[in-house]
Task: structure prediction
Amino acid sequence: MTEELFREDACLSSCEATVLAVDEEGIVLDRTVFYPLGGGQAGDAGELLAADGRLVAIVDARKHKGRPGAIAHVPAPDAPLLQPGDRVRATIALPRRAAHMRFHTATHLLCALVPHPVDGCSITAGYARLDFHTAEPLDKEAINAGLARLVAEAHPVRHRWISEAELEANPGLVRSMSVQPPRGLGRVRVIEIEGVDLQPCGGTHVANSADIGAVVVTKIEKKSAMTRRVVLGFAD
Result:
């Protein structure tokens, strides 16, 4: 398994690690700061620097399909080879991660403003979108005003862990229809934006809503009779 350092500290940009395996899916480390694609959030990019100076560009990070609990760091096609046992310094591309954190936190604000279940999500460095299960039209200007207000109010953002029993007793915490929290680990990670939102989430987030900065709704689309898509972009 790969120790997921980003779960407890989303601002940690690098760490020392040991290569456990190298295969067709990528490079598996014993610990990492790289967030893997999942929960709608894109994976991190960055680099692995070996002790002998070999520099491996990492273009993506994904959950390893053949090794439960492991994260595959996908190297660039021309990257030098690493071997199991190699010591490396893993470093993420900070601008990409920062954008993911800002957008992911912004989608939580959006959930608080639009009181409908979510049936689709995508968070990238260039935009974020949520698909809401509703036939009702959404007011772009009202949502933009709400986002600006919640960002300006500077609500603290924190994560904590609750038991699976607590989650089962509060099914309303789960807003997503398409992505369910993982079961079987005994506990579930939740993100709380103080006074605004509380829901299970394994992604990376900023520490305060003010850190999101200027974010706006760039588009609202009717994708089907019961789906309204809201796309967010940075205004700065």
Notes: The CA atoms of residues 96 and 125 lie 6 Å apart.
